[in-house]
Amino acid sequence: MRIISKKSGVRFAVATLAISVSGSLYAQQQSAPDSRIVVNGVPAPEAAVAPTTPGPEIKGIISARHGDRIKVTAADGTSTIIAINEATRIKAASGLFSKKKLAADSLLNGLPVTVKTLQGGGDLLASQISLRNNDLKTASMIRNGTAQGFEEQTAATQALRGRMGDIDKYNVKSTTNVHFDTGKSDLSDQDKAQLCSAATSAQATENALLLVVGYTDSTGDDDFNQALSEKRAARVINYLQQVCGWKPYRMLTPTGMAKADPLASNDTVEGKAQNRRVAVNVLVSKSVDGL
From 28's CA, which of 41, 114, 137, 159 has a CA 20 to 30 Å away? Predict the structure, then answer.
């Protein structure tokens, strides 16, 4: 009986000590969290990190802008959407070596730019946008409509932008056609020379505007041909501005007409070759032309 009693006492003492130790550990856990505790679950999303990886350098003309994004169309007709933010540096060359910083509202449609980008998450962010001061002055004058001697060109551009309804108010002084391979929008060396020759000739005609219209043959479906005709027109208009020196304020919005208005029958190889074209029309207002 004593042995059993002693054992019971030992057991009671051990149990009491365990409770005491457990209570002590519990108190410690309440006062200081255990670093070994692992909590499973979905962490809160981290703040978006700005892209830092260098992206491609984009050269072209600003063809559209919406909010904090601009669309830059290159000489080959391809377009790139680029985001801008408060960190984007916008610089205009104001002299041989000097440059001045500009605000984002200086990024006007029709302005030739060179954009250095950063990429991340599939998007491009402009780190620096460079442009020429003279181009900015021209684009600003067109937008404001206050440049002496440019009133008629500006009014004509606004009236005809994106539509052909008032084309009968203008005389077509000349038309230059450049041609393309099936399904392509590349300009040949001969076409490039022909475009600059047409631009030089049109420069001598006071108040002349250029209307660029793209066409295709009957190969392919309607959606494909519409996109292709617009791409061909954009390729020509960019080359005229960037290489041939034709000013944006004297250029009407390019139009894609797909397979409409063929020059020849689409039933022959020769006819299709004639229809795969971009027409560069030199227009002069009838009120100025005297007719």
Answer: 41
Residue in this structure with the two tokens 């205009």, named with its chain if needed: 92
pLDDT digits (tens, 9 = 90+) for 219-273: 999 999 999 999 999 999 999 999 999 988 888 877 889 998 899 999 999 999 9
- Cα distances (angstroms) measured from residue 104 to each of 58, 66, 94, 112: 17, 12, 17, 15
Q: Which domains does the chain have, with CATH numbers?
A: 53-139 (2.40.50.140), 149-289 (3.30.1330.60)
Judging by DSSP bridges, how do beta strands 123-132 and 89-93 pair with one another? parallel
Contacts 24+ apart (CB under 8 A), 223-229: 225/258, 225/259, 226/256, 226/258, 227/256, 228/183, 228/185, 228/256, 228/258, 229/256, 229/257, 229/258
**Two tokens, residue 176:** 């230059």
